[in-house]
């Protein structure tokens, strides 16, 4: 089935936006929505609230609010899993060893500065899309004849 997922091009990869969008399209994704935004630390904390207790939380918030990001709603069959496969493992250094063609292998630095985000489930995708695009209708409205 066709799914939507939320993708983020993080500050460290922001300048490569067009090259990355080209790769995204060549991999069969449709860009349904796109926004350039500079998150405040407060907004970033809300987005990453599930990581609040992690040791890396404050570094993550500092990183993600350090500059512009590109937020994308991507559509495709199995978009959630396919996007996570395209970006590769969280740790960019490990990605370079095990998934050398993945986006994190190509653009990320390490496990923290990893250039991309992808929703980890359909449920997360729904929450994350709503976070950035609160006015989007959830399902296509059926046309009456
Ligand atoms: P992301 O997929 O956006 O989800 C949470 C982010 O936290 C992750 O990408 C990394 O940027 C960061 N992160 C995850 N694990 C670690 C870790 N062990 N140390 C530091 N940062 C991490």
TrEMBL record:
Record keyword Magnesium present: yes
One record GO biological process: CTP biosynthetic process
Domain Nucleoside diphosphate kinase-like: 2-140
A GO-annotated cellular component: cilium
Keyword tags: Cell projection, Cytoplasm, Developmental protein, Hydrolase, Magnesium, Metal-binding, Nucleotide metabolism
Subcellular location: Cell projection, Cilium
Binding positions (ATP): 10, 56, 84, 90, 104, 114
The keyword Phosphoprotein belongs to this UniProt entry's keyword annotation: no
Active site (record annotation): 117 (pros-phosphohistidine intermediate)
Annotated GO MF terms: hydrolase activity; metal ion binding; nucleoside diphosphate kinase activity
Family per record: Belongs to the NDK family.
Protein name: Nucleoside diphosphate kinase homolog 5
Organism whose genome encodes this protein: Helobdella robusta
Record lineage: Eukaryota, Metazoa, Spiralia, Lophotrochozoa, Annelida
Range within the parent protein: 11 to 155 of 205
